[in-house]
Amino acid sequence: MEPDRTLITAERARQPTLLARADIRELAAIFAGGFLGAVLRGALERSLTAGPGGWPWATFTVNVLGTLLLGWLITRLQERLPPTMYTRALLATGFCGALTTFSTMVLEILSMIEHAHLLLAVSYAAASIAAGLAAIEISTKMVRRGRVFG
User: Fold this and answer.
1) Is residue 102 part of a domain?
2) Which domain holds residue 73?
């Protein structure tokens, strides 16, 4: 026997939408952090430009810096400070999320490949992953050992 579709529809109508359930303060924190992260990334992108045959220092820098900061923030917020939704939303989701850019890294790698810079593309991809993993490891250990504002 199939469920009555009118009852299912009526039940869904009573449930709040995703936007209605959202905490406006959390969304504002994400927006503010995202704005600041995007502005910083844009400034670095303008100052450190590279063509398809050069190392994309701007993207590499923001991704490694953002990963280092994200590792430090998340470890600090989860292990050392009282839980707060807004700090994590502002700094981790907003700022670090907008500062780092996986999509630009992929587009740069594709551009390198299209311009026959295969070794550069592979090196850049490998270095980005290795540096990101090292940044997480270093920042997590810094917090856990109580160094650098730990």
Assistant:
1) yes
2) 22-144
Cα distance from N-terminal residue to C-terminal residue, the chain? 60
Quote the tokens at residue 10: 């009526």
Q: What angle do CA 133, 134, 136 make, to 5 degrees?
A: 65
Q: Round to whole Å and give the CA distance between 117 and 85.
A: 44
Virtual torsion, Cα 81, 74, 139, 108, nearest 10 deg: -160
Pull the structure tokens for residue 15: 């449930």
> Is the pTM of the predicted complex or chain greater than 0.85?
no
In a domain, 14, yes or no: no
Is 1 inside a domain boundary? no
Q: Is residue 40 part of a domain?
A: yes
The residue type found at 7 is L
Overall average pLDDT of the 109-125 stretch: 96
